[in-house]
Amino acid sequence: MNEPDASAEHELQQLRAALARSQQQVADMAAAQEEFLRAVSHDLRAPLRHVTSYGALVREVLGDLPPEVLQGAEVQEALGFLATMDQSARRMGLMIDGLQALVRASRAPLRLQPVPLADAIAHARTTLASAERGRTVEWRVGVDLPTLQADSTLLQELLVQLLGNALKFTRPVAQPCIAVLADAAPAGQVAFAVQDNGVGFDPARAGTLFGVFQRLHRETEFDGVGAGLALCRAIAQRHGAQISATAVPGGGCAVRVQWPVDAAAAGTVNVAANVNANAHQR
C-alpha cells in the first residue's frame, strides 16, 4: 500500500471511530432520557401524591374540631397554609406532566406523512372547543396553507399548544381575533404564523419564551406552568423546523413556524448537529 492509500485508510478509520463515538453518545443520551422519564413518571409522583393526600387528611381532621375552635384565627391560618400547599403540589404535578410531554416528543418515533395544515388546524380547534366555549372568537384561517411533511400526532400537539395559547391570552380582549396564515419562506421551506390580538408580552423577554417553565405573565393572571412553548420548540426541532415569536405589550403576539419541505432530511441534519453540539459541550 502506497503512502496516499495509507493516509486515506487512516483518515477513514478516524471517521469510523468518530461515528462510533457519536452513536455511543446518542445511545447514552437516549438511556439517560429513559431513566429521566422513569424517575419523573414514578419516583417523583409518589411523594407528590403523599403531599396532596395527607393535606386532605389534615383538612378533614381540622374539620372535626368544634365550630368555635375551627373559626379561630390559628386554625383558619393553618387551613390557608394547606390550601397553598395543595395548590403548589398540583402545580408541580402539571410541571411533571410538561416534562413527560417533552421527553415523549423527543423520543417518539417520527412517522412522517403529508398533513394538510388546514385539516390539522380544524382538528386542533375541535380539541380546544371547551376553551372557546361561551366566547365569540373571530378566526381567520388562510386558504393557501401548505401541506406539511410531519408526524401528525406531534403536529397536533404543536398546534393545540399554539392555538390554546392564543385563546388563553385573548381572554381579556373584548373582540378576540386569531389568525393562521401562510407566510413567505426561503426555497425548500414553507412557513405559517399564528397571530392573535391578545395581551402580548415584553419583546425584550422573547429570548426566554421557549425555555422550560418560562412564564411571561403572573400565575394569577393566566394559568399554565410555561411548558407548552418548550414542547412546541422540541417538536419543531424534531422536524428540522424553526419557531419564533414576536409581540407588543397589549398588542398581541405572532408565532412563526418555518418548516422544511423535506422534513426527513432536515430532521436528520438537525439531530446530527445536536449530537455534535452535545459532544463539544462535554
Automatic annotation (TrEMBL):
- Quickly give the catalysed reaction: ATP + protein L-histidine = ADP + protein N-phospho-L-histidine
Query: Which Gene3D superfamilies would you find in this protein's record?
Result: 1.10.287.130, Histidine kinase-like ATPase, C-terminal domain (3.30.565.10)
Task: Give the Gene Ontology MF terms in alphabetical order.
Answer: ATP binding
Per the database entry, which stretches of residues form a coiled coil? 5-32
Q: Output the Pfam families linked to this UniProt entry.
A: HATPase_c
Q: Has the keyword Phosphoprotein been applied to this entry?
A: yes
**EC number of this enzyme:** 2.7.13.3
EC top class, as a word: transferase
Ordered alphabetically, the record's keywords are:
ATP-binding, Coiled coil, Kinase, Nucleotide-binding, Phosphoprotein, Transferase
Q: Which residues form the Histidine kinase domain?
A: 39-263
Q: What is this protein called?
A: histidine kinase
